[in-house]
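Page 37, continued from 36.
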């Protein structure tokens, strides 16, 4: 990626974090289906073309028009298989929608859960109607209307309700090995929790139980699968990744130890210090002094 592209992406993500919402059109063979900060934002997009979507432990391949719902807590990736690809995307934070009482629709929707199917096949008539909703969102986000955020929330809710009327795609494939499948999902979900960029958004998933709850599996099943595939317990993976993030924060930020402890989900700095010593063999102050 050249410098100009890097700055453009950075500016886009900064603006998205500030506003909590962005809608835009996907044109030609654009890569804009993938250009955003995945950690913080939900995604709804309508696309026309041939693509393969990997969502949690499943893969969907489809040609035509589809409506897709992406959850930042559930790993997914997108492969564009056709030479032309077009549609619309909107990205929004949970905080943006929480300002509305209608946010319950988001939490209860089957499209944002790991056990649900987030991909809907749509007809030409449905595509035209949904396209019109996206166009209205794009128009409103650029307007001076005082209550445009409320109106955009209404459009998001309308998209969810329209999808609830549709039939999800069922022509998907899954990993043959169930342990490998759940391990792959866990490892990507673990990585998605990082980096920690602000003390205002501390680490949300801290224990094996937290990850099991997020993935809608029993913690014993998760632990057995991860240990079988990697040779290490789930808790060790979490501890090692958290310690690595702690090292990065100690070396590359001016946050004090108490701030880092809070950002990583520790109730007291002493808990964090004891954890860090146990995992790394050295104290946080040692790492901080080496970085100076």
């Amino acid at each position: 990626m050249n410098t100009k592209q890097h700055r453009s992406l950075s500016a886009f993500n900064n603006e998205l974090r500030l506003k909590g919402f962005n809608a835009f059109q996907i044109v030609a063979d654009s890569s804009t289906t993938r250009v955003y900060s995945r950690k913080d934002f939900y995604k709804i997009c309508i696309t026309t073309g041939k693509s393969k979507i990997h969502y949690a432990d499943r893969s969907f391949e489809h040609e035509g028009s589809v409506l897709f719902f992406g959850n930042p807590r559930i790993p997914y990736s997108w492969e564009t298989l056709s030479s032309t690809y077009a549609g619309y995307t909107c990205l929004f934070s949970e905080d943006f929608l929480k300002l509305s009482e209608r946010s319950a629709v988001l939490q209860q929707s089957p499209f944002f859960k790991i056990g649900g199917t987030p991909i809907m096949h749509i007809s030409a008539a449905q595509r035209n109607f949904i396209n019109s909703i996206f166009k209205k969102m794009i128009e409103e986000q650029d307007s001076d209307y005082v209550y445009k955020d409320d109106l955009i929330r209404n459009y998001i809710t309308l998209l969810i309700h329209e999808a609830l009327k549709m039939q999800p795609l069922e022509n998907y494939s899954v990993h043959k090995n169930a342990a490998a499948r759940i391990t792959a999902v866990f490892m990507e979900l673990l990585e998605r929790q990082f980096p920690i960029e602000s003390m205002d958004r501390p680490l949300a998933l801290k224990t094996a139980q937290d990850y099991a709850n997020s993935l809608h599996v029993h913690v014993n099943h998760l632990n057995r699968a991860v240990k079988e595939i990697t040779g290490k317990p789930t808790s060790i993976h979490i501890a090692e990744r958290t310690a690595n993030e702690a090292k990065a924060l100690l070396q590359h930020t001016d946050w004090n130890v108490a701030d880092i402890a809070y950002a990583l989900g520790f109730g007291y700095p002493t808990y964090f210090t004891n954890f860090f010593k146990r995992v790394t063999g050295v104290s946080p102050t040692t790492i901080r002094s080496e970085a100076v």
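The chain has two domains: 3-173, 177-291. Flag for discussion at group meeting. The domain at 177-291 is CATH 1.10.10.60 (Arc Repressor Mutant, subunit A).
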